[in-house]
Specification:
Bound molecules: adenosine-5'-diphosphate, magnesium ion
Helix content: 25-40%
Distance between the termini: 115 Å
Oligomer: single chain
Strand content: 15-25%
Largest sheet: 8 strands, mixed
Low-confidence stretches: 593-598
Number of helices: 24
Structural class: alpha/beta
Radius of gyration: 32 Å
Length: 707
């Protein structure tokens, strides 16, 4: 019999609400038992017909929760994953014919809704951890609520640790619901007193050193449980592991990392009870998603890698930022679940008190292109066609729709066949577009690797050679990275070799995995072009199709200055290998703040293109200009024929013969220039002065002349 949990007391109330009303909101603190107990209770009570789908904001949480529930329910029903309980996350699933409780990440559900808008076979959707307010969670909530208008028997339960429940309850009630909104069930759970210490003053030592000092202090005061350390991201955790080796050895602590990309058995090791005291180094997955028993002390860096989007490319980027006060409170609470706990914050009280109260929901700050495409795919007319819990800001929504049109994924307000193809790839539409183009050109496999490279963090530890030397010129930083990845595959991505070659082993591994997974979804039935150069050309062309709005031209040969089509300029970073090309697409720039603003940006990675490709692909954006102009340097009239792409001159021809043939029109230009230059340029100044004096005299003496 599984141990009693606080949530057990309210399970009948939840079952009743779901059965009678079809919608409910459940608020209970982390560790109360929401994730692990509620789905099973609904199933056992027969409150829903069909499968129960539980949405998790993180892959790690989906897998761990599924494993936990499978074991807890175990017994005759089989405790194996993929039996009664399974999970499905991007690129990984354990689901069987008997699966009744399916833990999924939020994105998996929205994508499933595309192919199966009625969610056949699903009797209940549980949106867990809704307080995280990921874009995909908001999207899932809106889509399922909408579906409920047609399928009243589809139950919808929203669960959260810290949510302000009333607005969600009101939203769930919907136009047909009761005025009181959806029922709200609360379980207060039990929390113990916390002794919270703040840093006396800001500490600028590396985080690892600060953590080591804190651990030493705790251990010397006497530690009788596990320590949970909150760090911003995987990279910081790996660095911190090194810094902690010594103190861990002295006090006999097992240092255990816990983050999303870690192999499953290592994740399990951090969560499982152990004989040795544990020092768990976690990202914010341990904030509310994953509960680890036995924690009596929390060390909080106060930082997280927050999902942002490059305003330039729209591609996701993770940036280290201070977490909100709400997150600080959640993190601290992890120390007081089973008895009074201790919390060491590596930031000052003032720092804490001046932080924002809550995180800004992703929908208010995210790139919306992927969500917009999914909605079009589901037959809705884009972002504006959905009733949101909180609608996205209009400028971001407009930018997303505009980009989809530009990528050819949407036309006249509806998804195109090309747009449908992009939906097969669970990546930003820009990257999907590159792969789709590459499929048609027989270079799908390397294009998938390029998409993975673009979507990942920087592969190179340093955008220069391993010894600081400038890199060999290349037409594309991406193809350069691709070559590095292929070379790394040759030696099986050995970390020491990677590091020696100036590559980040962790990123290389992640890119390699995503590249292979994308390649599995891509069509590879076209013959590849013959020769490496031909392949590279097709790849560069495909890259252009993902970034048609990011075309630029060098201001002068080999200058780092790039002028963009549509306005603005930037400078290629010294580490970019694109040294010769005149026309480029800028695919990766240092963040500049404002969305789409290209006032002066640093371009980290670029890829060469040719003017003829723009003509072939985007004739509708090409303008022709044919003018007679004065060439001041050569003091003559010339005919200039220009081709522009969004206002950027991509081709220009000047000739004097054309001007000669133009006759009178050329003479007019010449006359205009002559007048502007001043008549003194053409006649003897003394003679002119005398002539003027004579004319003035005649005008005075003989006014009738009208001079
Ligand atoms: P909630 O979703 O309300 O935050 P959970 O259902 O995740 O809570 O966890 C309830 C309790 O179950 C936790 O307090 C913990 O004791 C236990 N638990 C959950 N997951 C695991 C796991 N993977 N291993 C061991 N214990 C677990
Ligand atoms: Mg939970």
């Amino acid at each position: 019999m599984p141990a009693a949990l606080p949530i057990d007391a309210v399970l009948p109330e939840i079952v009743g609400a779901v059965r009678d009303r079809g919608v409910a909101v459940l608020v209970a603190p982390p560790g109360a038992g929401k994730t692990t107990r509620v789905p099973g209770a609904l199933l056992d009570a027969g409150a829903v017909t069909g499968e129960i789908v539980v949405l998790q904001p993180r892959r790690l949480a989906a897998r761990l929760a599924a494993a936990r529930v499978a074991t807890e329910r175990g017994g005759a029903r089989g405790g194996e994953l993929g039996g009664e309980v399974g999970y499905e996350v991007r690129f990984d699933r354990r689901i069987g014919p008997a699966t009744r409780i399916r833990f999924v990440t939020e994105g998996v559900l929205t994508r499933r809704l595309l192919g199966d808008p009625e969610l056949r076979g699903v009797g209940c959707v549980i949106i867990d951890e809704f307080h995280e307010r990921h874009l995909d969670g908001d999207l899932a909530l809106a889509l399922v609520a909408r579906l409920r208008a047609r399928r009243r028997e589809l139950a919808l339960l929203v669960m959260s640790a810290t949510l302000d429940a009333e607005p969600v309850a009101a939203f769930l009630a919907g136009p047909l619901g009761a005025p009181a909104g959806a029922p709200i069930v609360r379980s207060e759970g039990r929390t113990f007193a916390l002794a919270i210490e703040h840093a006396e003053q800001p500490d600028d030592r590396p985080i690892g050193r600060q953590v080591a000092a804190a651990v030493r202090r705790i251990a010397q005061d006497g530690l009788d449980g596990d320590v949970l350390v909150f760090l911003p991201g995987a990279a910081e955790i790996r660095r911190c592991q090194d810094d902690l080796a010594e103190v861990a050895a002295i006090f006999d602590l097992a240092v255990l990392p816990l983050y999303g990309d870690l192999p499953a058995d290592e994740q399990d090791r951090a969560v499982r009870p152990a004989r040795q005291r544990k020092l768990i180094l976690a990202t914010n997955v341990a904030e509310t998603s994953v509960t680890i028993d036995g924690v009596v002390c929390v060390i909080d860096s106060g930082l997280a890698r927050i999902a942002r989007h490059s305003p330039w490319s729209g591609l996701p980027s993770l940036q280290i930022e201070p977490v909100s006060r709400a997150s600080c409170t959640q993190r601290a609470g992890r120390a007081g679940r089973t008895r009074p706990g201790r919390v060491i914050r590596l930031y000052t009280r003032h720092d804490h008190d001046t932080r924002r109260a809550f995180e800004v929901p992703e929908i208010a700050r995210a790139d919306l292109a992927e969500a917009a495409l999914e909605l079009h795919g589901a037959g809705l007319a884009g972002l504006g066609a959905l009733a949101w819990f909180e609608p996205p800001p209009a400028p971001a929504a407009d930018a997303a729709e505009e980009l989809l049109v530009r990528l050819g994924a949407v036309a006249s307000g509806a998804i195109t066949p090309l747009g449908r193809r992009l939906l097969r790839f669970p990546v930003h539409p820009r990257l999907g577009r590159i792969i789709a183009e590459a499929e048609a050109r027989g270079v799908a496999e390397p294009a998938c690797a390029i998409a993975a490279l673009l979507g990942a963090r920087e592969l190179r530890l340093e955008r220069r050679g391993p010894r600081g030397e400038a890199r060999v010129a290349s037409p594309s930083d991406l193809i350069d990275d691709l070559d590095a990845l292929y070379a790394a595959r040759q030696h099986g991505l050995r970390p020491d070799r990677l590091r020696r070659d100036g590559l980040d082993p962790y990123t290389a591994g992640a890119v390699d995995r995503v590249a292979r997974q994308l390649a599995r979804a891509a069509r590879d039935d076209r013959p590849a072009p013959a020769g490496d150069d031909a392949v590279d050309r097709e790849l560069q062309l495909a890259i252009l199709t993902g970034f048609p709005d990011r075309v630029g031209k060098r201001r002068a040969p080999r200058s780092a200055e790039i002028v963009f089509a549509g306005g603005g300029s930037g400078a290629l970073a010294p580490g970019s290998a694109v040294i010769d090309a005149e026309l480029v697409v800028a695919v990766d720039v240092a963040d500049t703040g404002a969305r789409g603003q290209a006032s002066k940006v640093q371009i980290r990675r670029a890829s060469a293109i040719e003017a003829s490709w723009l003509l072939d692909l985007y004739l509708d954006r090409i303008a022709e200009r044919d003018e007679l102009v004065w060439n001041a340097g050569r003091q003559r009239v010339e005919r200039v024929a220009q081709l522009t792409y969004d206002g950027l001159v991509i081709d220009e021809q000047r000739d004097v013969d054309g001007a000669r043939r133009a006759g009178a029109a050329a003479a007019a230009v010449l006359a205009r220039e002559a007048i502007a230059a001043g008549i003194e340029q053409f006649v003897d100044p003394d003679a002119l002065a005398q002539w003027r004096a004579r004319v003035a005299l005649v005008a005075r003496l003989v006014p009738d002349t009208g001079l």
